[in-house]
């Protein structure tokens, strides 16, 4: 029996946090849309010596290169919204106005990898806008074909199908707000 070889490394980031500001939408020179987000994740604990409640917040830069996910982010994301996202860490080098080389590390949702899920959707939560091949686009928690209980468990809500497309309701009624 031959042993399988594993990949030498994995670059995957999963964040659940709140948007620090509205998305910044820009177009590249080739006309492709990209969206910059700032996501805050917080950790709270009680200090053992003083008994005081402590909190630490980390800020994460996120860049969306997936066209559909960028469209959805532009339409639905606003400051304060809670999101689940998956991406990769990428560091880029740039030169500031004084000629100094700088480095910025970002979570990147690329064209074919990554995921973005709204956890506190205005329509009762769980809208998924995946960029990865298994997510295949838009899923809505309110669609009858969804495989969930409708409650907010804190876990991202995903499509239950696996055909690369979105899950159509069993009664063939379609939502008017499909973003593509």
Automatic annotation (TrEMBL):
It comes from the Bacteria. InterPro entries: NA-bd_OB-fold, Primosome_PriB/ssb, ssDNA-bd. Residues 123-180 are annotated as: Disordered. CDD domains: SSB_OBF. Keywords: DNA damage, DNA recombination, DNA repair, DNA replication, DNA-binding. Residues 59-65 bind DNA. It holds the Pfam family SSB. A motif (Important for interaction with partner proteins) lies at residues 175-180. Homotetramer. Plays an important role in DNA replication, recombination and repair. Binds to ssDNA and to an array of partner proteins to recruit them to their sites of action during DNA metabolism. This is Single-stranded DNA-binding protein. It comes from Saccharibacter floricola DSM 15669. The lineage of its organism: Bacteria, Pseudomonadati, Pseudomonadota, Alphaproteobacteria, Acetobacterales.
């Amino acid at each position: 029996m031959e042993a399988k070889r594993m990949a030498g490394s994995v670059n995957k980031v999963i964040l659940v946090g709140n948007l620090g500001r509205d998305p910044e939408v820009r177009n590249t020179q080739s006309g492709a849309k990209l969206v910059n987000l700032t996501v805050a994740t917080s950790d709270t604990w009680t200090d053992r010596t003083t008994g005081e409640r402590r909190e630490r917040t980390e800020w994460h830069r996120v860049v969306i290169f997936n066209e559909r996910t960028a469209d959805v982010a532009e339409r639905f994301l606003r400051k304060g919204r809670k999101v689940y996202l998956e991406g990769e860490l990428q560091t880029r080098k740039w030169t500031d106005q004084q000629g100094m080389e700088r480095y910025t590390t970002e979570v990147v949702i690329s064209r074919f990898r990554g995921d973005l899920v709204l956890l506190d959707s205005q329509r009762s939560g769980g809208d998924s806008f995946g960029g990865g091949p298994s997510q295949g686009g838009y899923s809505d928690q309110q669609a009858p074909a969804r495989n969930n209980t409708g409650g907010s468990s804190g876990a991202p809500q995903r499509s239950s199908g696996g055909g690369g497309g979105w899950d159509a309701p069993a009664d063939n009624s379609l939502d008017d707000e499909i973003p593509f």
